[in-house]
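Async update (no meeting this week)

Hi team, since we skipped the sync, here's where things stand on the single-chain job. The sequence we agreed to prioritize is pasted below, unchanged from the tracker. I ran it this morning and attached the output directly underneath so nobody has to dig for it. Comments welcome in thread, and please keep replies under the output.
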Amino acid sequence: MKSRFSRGLALIALGLPFALSAADAQVTFTTPSNEAAQAPRPTRDRGPALAPSVVAAQTAVEACAARGYQVTAVVVDSAGLPVVLLSGNGAAAITQSIAMGKAVSSMRNGKPSGALAAEARTNQELAAKLAADPQQGPQRPGGLPILAGADVIGAIAVSGAPDGNWDAECAQAGLNKAAAGFKSAKR
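Output:
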């Protein structure tokens, strides 16, 4: 009896991580209903074109990989929707959501997410505004606005390096490489 009980407990213990991993899986998107999928489909908002966005994201991921960091890079348009999202080999799944938050914050506020983080530490009104928006949430360095002239047309962000300032450096490398392509925005 005791050995059957022990074996049963061992089987439960072995199966528990598999049961928990499915239940604890991170949801990064939702699939639209059939009705939503059949609704009219407006084009994405004004923002960076696809080709320079791919170059920027790829360069950012490669810049961090050269330092030994597995990261995610995202480029969003002026509505905060992803144009490109690239996760490097070995990047943690949560880096996708964190990068999106950094990019949306940079785009909506027209400044680097690291500057927002510093400002929110001393400006309680800003901190409350950011905290109230689930798409922005806690501020971390690593997001940079993308400009076409003086207009913010989107943002690039990186997440996954052990320090957000390193994320910002990798995002800047991507932005620098693709800068010429960002001069004209998709309309």
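Quick observations from my side:
DSSP finds seven helices and four strands in the chain.
Strands lie at 72-76, 82-87, 143-148, 151-159.
Reply here if anything looks off.
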